[in-house]
Amino acid sequence: MKKATRAQTKNHNKTLVLNAIYKNEDLSRADLSRLTHLTRSTVSDIVSELIEEGLVVELGYGQPSGGKPPVLLEVDKEARQIIGLDLASGEFRGALVNLRGEVQERVSIAINERSGDVALELVYELLEQLIGLAKTPVIGIGIGAPGLMDSEKGIVHSAVNLDWENLPIRDILCERYQLPVHIANDSQVSALAEYNFGDHERMQNLLVVKIGRGVGSGIVINQQLYQGDGFGAGEIGHIKVDEDGELCRCGNTGCLETKISSRALRQRVQAMILDHPDSGMQAFAKDIQAITLDEILAAYQAGVPEIVEIVEETGASLGKALAYMVSALNIHQVIVAGSVSQFGDGIVLPAASQFQSRILPNLASSTEIKVSDLGEEIVILGAAGMVLQYELGIM
Amino acid sequence: MKKATRAQTKNHNKTLVLNAIYKNEDLSRADLSRLTHLTRSTVSDIVSELIEEGLVVELGYGQPSGGKPPVLLEVDKEARQIIGLDLASGEFRGALVNLRGEVQERVSIAINERSGDVALELVYELLEQLIGLAKTPVIGIGIGAPGLMDSEKGIVHSAVNLDWENLPIRDILCERYQLPVHIANDSQVSALAEYNFGDHERMQNLLVVKIGRGVGSGIVINQQLYQGDGFGAGEIGHIKVDEDGELCRCGNTGCLETKISSRALRQRVQAMILDHPDSGMQAFAKDIQAITLDEILAAYQAGVPEIVEIVEETGASLGKALAYMVSALNIHQVIVAGSVSQFGDGIVLPAASQFQSRILPNLASSTEIKVSDLGEEIVILGAAGMVLQYELGIM
Fold first, then answer.
1. How sure is the predictor about B96, in pLDDT bands with cuts at 50, 70 and 90?
2. Contacts of residue A217 in chain B, CB cutoff 8 Å?
3. Least crowded by CB within 10 Å, which of A162, A221, B321, B345?
4. Is the pTM of this model over 0.80?
């Protein structure tokens, strides 16, 4: 607990007002006073300050309830921009995002196996392009990356693919660009993306499972990203789920990643083709030595039975893992993201069915599993959401 | 977020000072001012108030650092009492506890299969005895019970053994005894017991797994009990962990409870005796039709090989479940409580070994699994801890 000083109280009240305007439509100063329990004059002072800073604009007049018609307020979503980076394996991507999480400029750079300092140079390149494209003041840089990130110290503990270890990326970028920098694991920020910009009511708690090349999850608890004691919360990709499972890239066998990642899905389809040289999959494959996820998706959508079966098995494996997570966390809203989530109900229905048969009925019935609608940019949006929260207090 | 008023600020600062005195030894008013960043005069006013209320006492003089020797302060642990109840299956137990979690009076009542209103009468009986025994003002009643409890509304949603459903126990007891009442699931409050009174540093986050007749867990996140969206967080006893497992009392098969509960342990020993009529266990059993946990413990301590094996298998099953929970939560401190925790290293070592082989090495290496030292009274202490937190703000 920290002491409450007058300056903090003032800041707290300002954040309170900004959040109320951000989360509600068509509020007047009087509405704000009712909503925040602050006095009319405190609200007026704060609103004037926010208008002066350009963060809030007057929208016009609302319906009068007797007396003068009220002036309605809204956050000017174009008042500031945020840089979000997704340092995914294969490709670094970045974007300029407005205050409502709308992507305005996109930049990406192929990594081509570059790592270490060379990979860091690519980050500079990306950032310099984005900073050059900004049309309004940039309030900060948010970064999501696979691996273990110390969000407090701003250090990449380990990002194996990039060969980064104990890289103080926050201080490096902060000094170089004179902007606030926030980093976190990519699956973790995906939860912030859903929390801030997902197409659903804002929940207190939220679980997002991101299934792409790797598998990880992000947990929002009490409206905040929960990162655990060592910033590793949600790292579920390498739990052993299969006693006789396949070798994982981590060196262990039977990890969840070997069951449900896009890599696992491709490998299983490839193995199926060897066993069934006459399966319907071949019609969708350009090169049966290198099946792509898009090809599998097309075959799935065309109803190729062998593919439907593999996708459903993937969903079932996800459901088994969710049984543990939901029993522990009792979070009602579970969202599946990442490239494998493109299979939609193909993944979610068998996941839900397994899940329901494996936990207490009343825990199961209150849990909803659905697919993210944020698509490929979820990490960029989550990284931007992190900046929104830490720099403007919007949460 | 709520608005910060002057009254709240004052209350906040008072809680800040009380917490500082509670958690540190030998503080002077000057130390408090440094620690809390409040002014000397604010601290003096608050301390006077706390002394007047009897919560804080002056201890005597400390070492002067030039000038007058400072007056040292401490919380008077006997200033108030708390009633903690453990509505366990088989027996209702209650105690009067001081502000340091020291149990001062104990009362218990056998349930003998009584349920419904009759069981509620037993709660009254317990409380009336305890209130009669109180020597200082009682600040509240805390209740831990197996089942699903709505801690916000103070309602027992369902406690199957007691045949209670949607019982507004808080309002009933509050009206009857004119005391604040707080309820939560028994495994959940066990985490609060460890957090408040366990023999270790206070952690931000804590996971307690309670293994008795049932299996459940409690999670402290950011110094507070985390209960999830539906107050069911930590309800891990009925996750299916064995595809071909035994029938559970919940109606499903292969639940974690069928693998590691005291009931499961007794059943397995009983089955072993049938298979090995000449095992070393018989020497410890009064009635081989009704083996007790104490008898199994005695045989385990004497090194009976069949029993050692069964206990180690139980630990291994626990370790598999912990792999999921720790990967999701990344909590460094895991504590095993409940009657089965009496097996100590017999449970913990195989659990740790399974656990380590099933998750990422750096998650595993930073996690410590140990046995609770709070013994049988953990639920009573947790219930009292809940009152301490909600009524005095000590957390």
1. very high
2. 328
3. B345
4. yes
